[in-house]
Amino acid sequence: MGPEGPAEAEADAGWVAAPGAVAAVLTADCLPVVLAHQSGSAAAVAHAGWRGLAAGVLEETVAALGEPGALHAFLGPAIGPDAYAVGQEVRDAFARAAFEDLLAFQPSGEGWRANLYLLAANRLKRLGLRPDRISGGGFCTFTDTQRFYSHRRDAGITGRMASLVWLEPGTD
Fold first, then answer.
1. What beta strand segments (E) does the chain contain?
2. Which bin fits 5, alpha (ψ -120 to 50), beta or left (φ > 0)?
3. pTM given for the model
4. Is 127 within the bounds of a domain?
5. Of 9, 51, 61, 58, which is closest to residue 30 (Cα–Cα)?
6. DSSP label of 5
7. Are 130 and 106 in contact (CB under 8 A)?
8. What are phi and psi of 103, to 5 degrees?
9. What is the number of structural domains in the chain?
10. Domain for residue 109, yes or no?
């Protein structure tokens, strides 16, 4: 979604800059990241699984909104760091981006446990978001069976959660 009006497309992120417009992503373990400009003039939501994070979905979304220092971010429910088992290829994808991202991986059996919240927060800070304007990241979709769908927990046969963002009319 851009400022020109409604657009229906499949993407890993969407943004709005007009009152009444809505952007949405669907997740079932991946991390939804909601971004809002402090002026209330624009907002976005991104689907930030490990592939999207590694490919730059947050960088592209922040660039679309502009003024990273004026943005607030909320990290929604996702698979938590104690449950997210990944292989070496995932760790390698982030090791190439920034050394501090390696702190988001802990050894586990034959692989690693990954912290999507830390990976996303690290990227947002590198983009210029103030740490005190990044919140959320406390709900695990895998372990909280009563509130959340989980692709991994439910062997891929599950629903999806929608994360929405919009601008209210009369707030610009």
1. 13-16, 22-27, 31-37, 43-48, 71-75, 85-86, 105-108, 111-114, 134-136, 161-166
2. left
3. 0.91
4. yes
5. 51
6. B
7. no
8. -70, -15
9. 1
10. no
Provide the residue range defining the domain that includes 34: 13-78+120-166
Residue of 66, 41, 69, 46 lying closest to 58 (CA atoms): 46
Domain with 152 in it: what CATH number? 3.60.140.10
- For each of the chain's 172 residues, which pLDDT tens digit applies? 344 445 566 679 999 999 989 999 999 999 999 999 999 999 999 999 999 999 999 999 999 999 999 999 999 999 999 999 999 999 999 998 788 999 999 999 889 999 999 999 999 999 999 999 999 999 999 999 999 999 999 987 888 999 999 998 875 4
- DSSP code at position 71: E
Decide if 102 is inside a domain: no
